[in-house]
Design goal:
about 30% helix; eight-stranded antiparallel beta sheet; six-stranded antiparallel beta sheet; alpha+beta
């Protein structure tokens, strides 16, 4: 593979970059220091273990996935300063001899190789891409416009002051808005409000031709409809998203006025290990649908209505903002914990055990223990998982996974090893949403998880259940598009791996095949260990449509990443 020199990449386009107009930056506490590029050396061929990356996943010129297993040594890593610089970059790339490929990367929180590439990697983290505008309000409700490189922790730090929150929010504070749009993330809120992509009003994208396109939800323009459905959940495979406008919902009274940040009320109900799984799944689905219908009714009543003085009425928040079931192994069975959560201004009554503590220290310790002694972690969960009603800090609850995993990784690096965090999600069908749920596929899948795990002597960490409908799910590559069902996530921890440990890889591949036979699909946002034949059967039609759109908007195949190359292009 040829090496990209500074002269080829930068000197040849210096005048164009110098002429690019970059807007003044808005305060961006979490943006990285500015630098243009780093030229990567050739990958080591001596078989030495990879060095531990610092938080953020970059060690010199070697880029890591968040699982710290997948990694790549690209020819160049570039941090463009603004949208105009991106336009000039693609113009220069079109004139350059030879075929070049580009991978887009945000906060580096992709668990698999979705943001890794072998040639040029564009990291969207500079000041202009990290700008955050004040929340606004129009006939469709509250909204917020931010740069695609803005990190969700910073976004929440602004909108929560005004009593506003994104309807759906994943659990990593260092994830960028452009990155989670590109993944169409599912969250604890998705049972009520749908996935993240359905709340994106508009985004700006730079196509490989250098054209900047503004894409709006609900547009009658065919081109915008195609880009909206393919870019959301498309893992940066069609262009570089530079700006995003998304919906907000009221998290307290007197929203959009500066005041106290909301907190989070949790009602935790624990089911015994001998619970009726049909009843658990039915309860999760019915509560999710009730919350969803209430949310949609309130949303519809807002549109086009006004008060007597001409102002718009407040946007009501659903009774519950998040619904999920967290499970853990106890011997040879699973114990389930139904978590119902909503925003509140009640006084703090923290959940015992530090589960939602902002510093994540207790969870971080448990994650590190789970990497070498999973039985001990099980015992802690068995005896220490709380039940009852609690009120927690917003940032501790919202970003509990990111808070604890970031701390655990930093502690592991300080002790001289890499902590591997592995997660894979499966969508099991539940039947049409307007009918009683068919829980048999999900029940059978849980039986297979337990049987295969015990046969392989593997102990997954927490196993999470969500219900996700297919309302407003237009993303071409979405695993739940046209497939309402239960999202089941398995987690494992390991250390110093350069590939998945064979028993874990074999387990996940077998479960992927089971998922296909039960009519489900593997979720593509996290780790994906599955045979290509199973993926082709689950996602083949969607992948065919996605390839058609890629041929239309990226005919030269400029945008690539190691994930899609591995999973689909073969």
């Amino acid at each position: 593979m040829s090496t990209l020199s500074r002269r080829d990449l930068l000197v040849g386009t210096a005048s164009a970059f110098g002429a690019a107009s970059c807007a003044p930056a808005i305060p961006d506490a979490m943006c990285a220091p500015y630098y243009v590029t780093a030229i990567c050396p050739a990958p080591s061929s001596d078989g030495a273990a990879a060095p531990a990356p610092p938080p953020g996943g970059t060690s010199g010129c070697e880029l890591f996935a968040y699982d710290e297993i997948e990694r790549a040594s690209p020819n160049a890593v570039i941090h463009p300063a603004c949208e105009a610089e991106l336009v000039d970059f693609f113009a220069a790339l079109a004139r350059a001899p030879g075929a070049r490929t580009v991978t887009v990367r945000g906060g580096g929180l992709s668990l698999d190789s979705q943001s890794l590439g072998k040639d040029i990697v564009l990291i969207i983290d500079q000041k202009d891409f990290c700008r955050i505008e004040r929340p606004g309000r129009d006939k469709d409700g509250f909204y917020m416009t931010v740069g695609a490189g803005a990190r969700w922790w910073d976004v929440i730090a602004i909108c929560a002051r005004f009593g506003l929150m994104p309807p759906s929010l994943q659990t990593g504070g260092d994830a960028t808005v452009g990155g989670t749009l590109s993944a169409d993330c599912v969250s604890r809120m998705s049972a009520i409000v749908g996935k993240e992509g359905s709340h994106v009003r508009n985004f700006r994208i730079v196509l490989p031709s250098g054209e900047v396109v503004s894409v709006s939800r609900g547009s009658g323009d065919i081109r915008q409809q195609e880009l909206y459905s393919a870019v959301i959940g498309g893992f940066g495979y069609l262009g570089v998203v530079t700006e995003v406008t998304f919906d907000l919902i009221a998290a307290r009274d007197n929203a959009n006025v500066r005041g106290p940040e909301p907190r989070v009320f949790t009602r935790a109900t624990r089911y015994p290990a001998t619970c009726d799984w049909d009843a658990v799944f039915r309860s999760l689905q019915s509560r999710s649908r009730e919350g969803r219908l209430s949310y949609m009714k309130q949303k519809a009543s807002y549109h086009g209505s006004s008060l007597g003085d001409g102002s718009t009425p407040p946007v009501a928040t659903p009774e519950w903002s998040a619904l999920s079931v967290a499970c853990f192994l106890t011997g040879y069975s699973l114990e389930a914990n139904l978590l119902e959560q909503r925003y509140t201004l009640d006084p703090l009554r923290p959940t015992p055990g530090g589960i939602y503590a902002r510093d994540g220290s207790i969870n971080a310790f448990a994650e590190r223990v789970d990497s070498f002694w999973p039985t001990a972690a099980e015992l802690v969960l068995d005896f220490g998982w709380p039940q009852g009603e609690f009120v927690d800090d917003l940032f501790g609850w919202a970003f509990f996974f990111g808070n604890s995993t970031k701390r655990a990784k930093a502690d592991a690096h300080a002790l001289g090893y890499r902590l591997n965090c592995i997660q894979q999600s499966f969508v099991l069908p539940s039947g049409p949403e307007n009918h009683p749920p068919d829980t048999r596929p999900a029940q059978r899948f849980i039986e297979l998880v337990l049987a295969r795990s015990h046969a392989a002597d593997l102990r997954p960490g927490p196993i999470d259940f969500l219900y996700v409908g297919d309302d407003d799910d237009t993303s071409v590559m979405s695993a739940s598009r046209g497939l309402p069902g239960f999202v089941i996530t398995l987690a494992f921890a390991d250390r110093d791996r350069t590939t998945l440990r064979p028993p874990i890889d074999e387990l996940l591949r077998a479960l992927s095949s089971d998922c296909r036979l039960l009519g489900g699909r593997v979720h593509l946002v996290k780790n994906v260990a599955a045979d290509r034949g199973d993926l082709r059967a689950m996602h083949g039609d969607a992948a065919k449509r996605f390839r058609e759109l890629k041929a239309k908007y990226d005919p030269g195949g400029v945008f690539r990443n190691d994930f899609f190359s591995r999973v689909f292009e073969a």
